[in-house]
Structure formats: C-alpha cells, structure tokens
Amino acid sequence: MTVAAARCLILTPTISSSAAALRLPRIARRRPLSCSASPLAVFATMDSPPEGYRTNVGICLADPSLTKIFSASRIDIPTAWQMPQGGIDPGEEPRAAAVRELREETGVRSAEIVAEAPNWLTYDFPADVKDKLNARWGTNWKGQAQKWFLFRLTGGDDEINLMGDGSEKPEFSEWAWMTPQQVIEKAVDFKKPVYEETLKHFAPYLQSDPTASS
Prior knowledge:
Layout: E1 7-10, E2 30-35, E3 42-46, E4 53-62, E5 69-74, E6 81-82, E7 85-87, H1 94-106, E8 111-116, E9 120-124, H2 127-137, E10 143-153, E11 172-178, H3 180-186, H4 192-202
Helix pairs in contact: 3-4
C-alpha cells in the first residue's frame, strides 16, 4: 500500500501536576457504568476485561518534555484522529502489547513507560462500526476493553514514521502534537469518554508548557 509522506503539525499544549498510578489485580468486579453525552458512546471502567469485548491496549505517547501528546489521522477516515491502539495477542501481557503496537504503528522504539492506567476502560462499538469490524475480524465483539499506557518519547520527532516498522499495514496519514483537550475534541464520539478518562489518569504525570500563553 502506498502512503503519502506524513505531515507533522505542532499545536500548543497545557496540562500539569504529580501522583502515582497502580496496577490493580485482575478481579472480575464491575465498576458503575459511565456514559457520555453522545447517545452512541457508552463506556465503563473495570478491574478486568469483561466477556464479549476485544482486549486492547491504548498508547498515550508524550513528547520528551511530557507537555504534548501524539495523535494521528486514520488513512481510511482522515477526519478521525486518535492515539495509537491495538489488540492484545493470545498469551501476551498488556505492557508488551503496548510496546509492540507503538513500534508497529509509529515506528517509535525510543520510549519509556511512565504510567499505566489502573483499570480497563471499556466502550461499545456503534452498530455500523461493530458490523464493519466484526466482518473484518470474523468475530462478534461488542466493543473493546482497553488498558492504557503513558509513554515518554526519549528520541526525536524524526523517529516517528507512520509506515511503522513494516510489519503491519499503515493506519495513519498525518500526525500532530496536541493538547489533551485537542486530542479529545478530534476523537470520534464513541471514543471521547475513554480519552477523557485516560487523560484524567495521566494528567498528574504531564507538565504545563512554559511557552503556552495563559
């Protein structure tokens, strides 16, 4: 597949503070369901991935100063911007899956894990998305159960390559460093609640941008 050279946009960020994330044991205990304002977006936080959902990792890649977040537009849906994510292989640990997916989707190898979200974030697919993805995968998933990781890029922007590491079909055509709010705003509606919750978890590790205007 031929992909045009990826363009990089730089957007101005703001966020702050400090705390600690913990890894909870995989106990099958469901937390209260939380819903967004969108009628299509349904999500929940859980201590372990529920039955009927595809297990998945999400990657919040921050720049070296931990002030900005990577987001990219999909090749198939250019208006849909998202953080990298991908399925967990059978027998694979979420942390290892996150490292692999980051490399496969962005080409990045120079990065360190800063934090792990303490619980699984679970969202349902809208009906049309569910039909399309399950037809592609040969499955019947209701949605995805995601474990999110915050990475810090330890290399330079020139390491980011939307062709990935060459092991998988490219997914993105353009990328940008964004503020957390911009990442949420550019996401498709059914992912917005998950992004809001994820960035709430990671906010204590991110830094305010000293160049941003007040």
